[in-house]
Amino acid sequence: MGGPGTTQALAAADAAAATLGDFEHWHHRRTDDAVDDGTLLLLSSKQPLSLSEPSSSSNNIIINNNNNNNNNNNNHQNNNPNNDRTTTTTRETFIVQLKDPPLVIALPLTLEDDDDEDEQEEEEEEDIDNYEGITNHHQTTRRRKKRRRRTARHEQRRRQLLHQQRQLLRRQLEQQHVDILAQYAPDATLVHSYTYTVNGFAARLTSQQAQVLASLPHVTAVDPDVIVTTKTTSQKTTRQTNQNNQPQQQQQQHDSHSHHRRATEYTPDYLGLTQPGQLWSQGYVGEDVVIAIIDTGIYPEHPSFADVPTPLWGNSGPAMAYGPPPPQFVGTGCALDLSLPPMDGDNDQDGSSSSSSSSWNCTNKILAAKCYVTGFSSVVDPTLPCGGNGNGLDPTFSLLSARDEDGHGSHVASIAAGNYGVEAVITTTVHPTTEVVVVGTLSGMAPRARLSIYKVCWIDSVTSQRAQCSNADIAKAIDDAVADGVHVINASMLLSYGIGITGLALLNALRAGVVASAVGGNQDSLVSSTGGGDNHQVQQQADQVNAAWHPWSALVGAILDDRTYAPHLAIAQPASLHGLYGAVPAECQACDANHVQAIFERVLVPARPLTACQPVAGNSRLQTRLRQRYLRGRIALVQSGGCDFTDKFNHVAAAGAVAILVYRDPKDDDDDPTPYIMVAPNTTIPGFMIDYETGHRLYQTYHDLERNASDASSTMSLSSSPESILVSFRLQGGEFVAPFSSHGPNQVFPNLIAPDVVAPGGDIWAAATPYTGGPYNLGGGQGQLFARLSGTSMASPHVAGVLALLKQAHPDWSPSALVSSLMTTARREGIYQAWGGGLATPFDIGSGLIQPNAALDPGVVFNITYEEYLAFVCGTSLPSISLIPCDELASQGYSFDLGDFNYPSIALSTLEGSKTFVRTVTNVAADTAERPLVFTAQVTAPLVPDGGGVTIVVNPTELVLAYGESATFEVTIQSTAQAKFNEWVFGSITWTGQQVPLPPSSSRRTTQVQTSTSKMNITTGQLRSPKKQTTKPTAETRKERRTRQLMARPITTKPAETEADDLAEKTYTVYIPIAVKPIALQVPSIASSHVSDGGVSYQVSPFYNGNLKTTVHGPAEASMIPGTVPQGESVFLGGIFPAGMLYARVALYDAFTANGGQQGKDDLNLRLYIQETPTSEYEEYAASTGPTSNEMVEYYTTTHVEEEGGGGGGGVPHDLAVLVRIDGVTLESGNSTTFTLFLWRLYMNDDPGWMEMDDGSPGRSVQAFVPQAINITWTGLESSSAPYFGAVTYTTDDVDGSLGMTLVEIVP
What's the pTM value of the predicted model, to 2 decimals? Predict the structure, then answer.
């Protein structure tokens, strides 16, 4: 790979070449004659990148041989061409996907046998039983026992045969992978074989070998391995005197009672699982449901995972031991028997603890434990427990096993499925004494669910970062988990961008009925820092949602539960500053709500010195007394930096201040003005931080008031003085979206609301690992068994655990139905934004906070079949997964329109006047065959600041559904002339249903119900006509029979005469959030005509009343740059996009290669890189990777201007250095081919030249929904071998920003 100076050298070379100013003069960078001499970089292999997976690792090489129709992809992604400079001798891990389907698709989900004959035989025997049972009870009983034993043996044989068949086919696929490598890369090393959810393999390859594999017809993609990370924000286990290394979460209280309430015993109670009549008491505790935890491993000795009897009904009932693994779970392996690391400083020479066992067998709680370390290994060895030597791990603290040295995996596992009744005890130090504190009693959401552990995240020795996870390893873990027979997967890490290998694995996991819960992300939220000066955490509103999200996993955001509060700084006077301002509370002894509420409106004065790093004093004794008097009983304004916060707090407190308000000095930390969480132990007053701008205004206002006051002392002493600054802290109680929780809109799939739901994720006490772990251990490295963590990593396992409860209750529901039940029944009332205090929007909470009891019986579900998920991918703007047969799906009638995707939410990023969405619901409510559900729709239209603006119409407004029936309804959303254009607005539809007597069939027909007495198929998510249901008894022991009887025993009993009344009063509420962004003008993206036509006409549709301004740009002739590229290598051309440029297009054509006119003989790829500033790295802006040499990429400046906050239409604000990369994928000659690169550029201030509006008028009046004709004419254009391109842009005085652009193509 290139050395450390590679990036700078490349940038310098391109900047020098760019001064020539045009592509004709751009230098050619050939890979066979360039040298790494500080000016040019040696590039001896092809290095194409993919839009699908930007890498955080050093190697970003991605090769896509995508033969679908979606070849040109112009999404702006963060891929750096300078970080992937590998030579043919450098070996990296690549993931190779093959065209043939994986086993989960190719195999039948069950063995074909004589099921029908078995059912008929059982029915006949049941008829005999029913007859003989009256006269010969004992004979009937014996026959039933015999049949039960026979059925049990039959089921066991069936499972064994199915497992053997799958294992045989897995070995066959694995051998195919070995054979492919032996033929095309004989010296490569096989890392992983993917057989079950993905057909492919990971291997150590050179770039040249990756090229060869990518060119094979049965290979669909070759992607490099990338590194992702888990999503935890903050942690703490103890309150120590020195807490500089213990970053804290924002909303934290310190008394032991608050700790008790925040243990994970509280979240089951908070979510409604623990009380009589709720899920646990009904026996839904995750019994025999297996949850896969893909994370940092597990600490198996932890009491949360002990194989001991636990209450049968969660928190009540007899204590029952765990039975054997569920029959469908066939996973093996228990990589927990390696030497343990140091604990509590008690080390042996070999690094193991003398107090701990060195071996461990899996149990009936932890069924299996596997580890995958190939992403951090130089040697791949399948005989090693984790498949590699792990030499890329931190050698001091890493455990080469499935044991958890980090703490994250244990924490997540205990939230999802930890045993009930585990007393959490920690040792805490409050100077000068040490005491043992009982934090509370812990429990997982599904306390009797089983766990299967897949460790993929490690401590990276290169980056010195914890919880680093290889995509190749994650994909293998998913592949193994589904093959092992798990029911639920929890992935608390950021998955690969877009769909990627892990997204594909989870998509195909649907075929096996596996449902997944994934994190929404904590992007740029709470960043720990322990550098000199203040100990702090950066507090910012979180970034957009996890870019890896896809709709076949439940995406989970985090909320702070109802024991938290959000502070605001209220400024009463002066009038110029009056209002509420966001404030971040400190982590200190007096920062709880009681202390803060005791501080009423007080005068604010600056401390002297302003940083308060020394005691408040003056140059004389009198001045010292005066300055201290100024602070007495008041709130001190202090600037950050210079010393620890404890010193600041104590210095102003000693002078008499009752509270401290710190404003951030941007020079304190990389010019960042945002407030953060201050950590101030051993202090006596509360404190808050505000942003730099607010604090500086307060400071300047104070000095202005002081200068204007006749007596400066009165400013300090009279709180009612108009010259005083009066402030207070207002506390808003309720539930809040966690500040770190990522929010929408979804950047990959903008037409889907994200996150899906939210769950508790702030200050969650759960299991930890006692291993020292140095600076990496989330438990603080103090031998603690429990830790308090925050993040969407903590929210996701709450949902995974609840999904396990629902899976137990509804084993035949599809994954989409399970997630739908959580979404449609979620609660959104009373949830606020922690950063602003306003009500949370669907982009903050999705459908809302999960309500497990309501999800148990949601009334209806939005079911999505596997094929409908595939059609969804075909309809996106992302590169289609090559495995997806989009053409075949289209021929079968599947819609690629995202409006038809049957998701339980509605979103549209470009509402062009009107859009109709189609949704289908299926009745899953029990006992409604004769008493159907009648649903009535209620619409909440989106609101904008001045009200109104968008209308929503539902048709029909009433649905009547019996059990198993489905109904389709339409939702039409239309913007009005009063809409706030280019802004997201939110609304909702709420279906309210009740059970009523069966209405006449004639009235039911008016509901447009598509009915069928159907039952859900767990394996496909489809609805099927049910067979006659028969009970297949299984052989059971006396103990198992006793357990079954106990589980079936009801907790409460209702009088029989009231059941009908209760049934009639049953009400269901189905909530569908809506997010749309209206646009003001619908314009065609391109208008084409021939030179000889002399013009082109098209229409635009305005959705507002006002004026429309049009501006003509161009047309531009093509600049043509010839070149040559060898097979398997790349050519770079460098230049600039000048300031004021509006649009650029770069293209290659089959007709202009060495095999001109013979389409598809040569396959070239085209990529465009942008360098935003002279000091930044090049990032991939667009790519075109089709199977021929017809490739095109475009650059639009409207996106860039909007990102920079421009008003639209200014063009490129400054010169941009760019690189164009041509890759020789496969060439007919096998050696090289010539090419011609075509370049067109349009500018904001172009002289229209040959092109103009027909009426000569750039402006006109328009009315909403009245189409406008646009007529463009040209003269004087000469015949050319390439098209001309011009453009028309649109603006108005009535809407901010650009309204769009139409490209005008003039064909020779």
Answer: 0.76
